[in-house]
């Protein structure tokens, strides 16, 4: 589980502002703390999507030294959200016809595209077998 520390501070207009010292330009806000946290999760994923090399997360103590009294909160990098921001790449894949018919039947019933379903299935498979 990968995470980065965000600094949560209440701004002048009463909004909860969040920035990530390790990721320049990664800033967001919410009307309250819960919304700011959801927005921070999304902003973190969007900022890191497609980077060849992610920045190293600083230790909490270092982040604490950079705050003016805000809350230092770990925000987990949501891989699924990050992938939704990444650039898609076209590939040519060979699949047996009967399996392709099953895929198309299933995706049609569930309102998914063929590419979306195959990407989701591959991600799920990799998650489930990462520990193997």
Low-pLDDT segments, ≥5 res:
none
Number-wise, the strands total 4
Largest sheet composition: 4 strands, antiparallel
CATH class of the largest domain: Alpha Beta
How would the global form be characterised?
A: elongated
Return the string of H and E elements.
Answer: EEEHHEHHH
- Looking at the structure, the CATH topology of the largest domain is Double Stranded RNA Binding Domain
Protein name: Ribbon-helix-helix protein, CopG family
Pfam families: HicB_lk_antitox
GO biological process, one term: regulation of DNA-templated transcription
Domain HicB-like antitoxin of toxin-antitoxin system: 17-122
Structure notes:
With 132 residues, the protein is an alpha+beta fold. The protein has two domains: 3-85, Double Stranded RNA Binding Domain (2-Layer Sandwich), CATH 3.30.160; 97-129. 43% of the residues lie in helices and 17% in strands. It is built from five helices and four strands. It has a four-stranded antiparallel beta sheet. The two termini are 16 Å apart.
Features:
132 residues; Double Stranded RNA Binding Domain; four-stranded antiparallel sheet; HicB-like; Ribbon-helix-helix protein, CopG family; TTHA1013/TTHA0281-like; Ribbon_hlx_hlx
Describe the protein's topology.
Layout: E1 3-10, E2 16-19, E3 27-30, H1 33-48, H2 60-64, E4 71-76, H3 79-85, H4 97-109, H5 114-129
Antiparallel strand pairs: 1-2, 1-4, 2-3
């Amino acid at each position: 589980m990968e995470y980065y520390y965000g600094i949560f501070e209440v701004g002048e207009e009463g909004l909860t502002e969040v920035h990530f010292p390790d990721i320049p330009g990664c800033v967001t806000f919410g009307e309250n703390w819960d919304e700011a946290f959801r927005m921070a999760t999304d902003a973190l994923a969007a900022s890191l999507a497609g980077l060849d090399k992610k920045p190293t997360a600083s230790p909490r103590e270092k982040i604490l030294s950079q705050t003016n009294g805000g809350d230092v909160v770990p925000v987990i990098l949501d891989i699924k959200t990050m992938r939704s921001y990444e650039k898609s790449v076209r590939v040519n894949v060979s699949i047996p016809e009967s399996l392709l018919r099953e895929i198309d039947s299933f995706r049609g019933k569930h309102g998914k595209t063929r590419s979306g379903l195959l990407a989701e299935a591959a991600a799920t498979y990799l998650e489930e077998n990462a520990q193997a």
